[in-house]
Amino acid sequence: MKTIYKVKKPTKRDQRVAKKSYQILTEQIRKINSLQPEIEIEETKEKIKIPYSALKLLNEILKAMAQGKLISIVPIATEVTTQYAAEMLGCSRPHLVKLLNEGIIAHAKVGKHRRIKYEDVLQFKTKMKQQQKKNIIAIMNADEELGLYDT
Known about the structure:
By secondary structure, the chain is mainly alpha-helical. It contains 5 helices and 5 strands. The termini are far apart.
């Protein structure tokens, strides 16, 4: 799969086109009964079959573009570098390496380099966010018990 490193925010024109396309495609998806619908490229008159799931993914991409969001598509089995994983988690690379060495996040070594499955980074990030939420709630409850919210 090709990796595109220059990711640009959709232009206002792209957003307008994506919004209109999203609305039309959403309506058409509701009418589809096939798992491999056929679509036609108007300019070339070429007809192609596309998996239904890919069509739904295209629709989600159009929705995000219409909202002006940046889009990234990463195959789940992709392995990432320690630097990229650290950036995803918002921590330093040395801290991430510590987590890897402690076995908190699974990884594999390729020569001297560590590789982490993208999916494992996402799972850890989700767990981390859930723990943060629990900690915030616990702090708020403790503050409330101490009467810190009373005026």
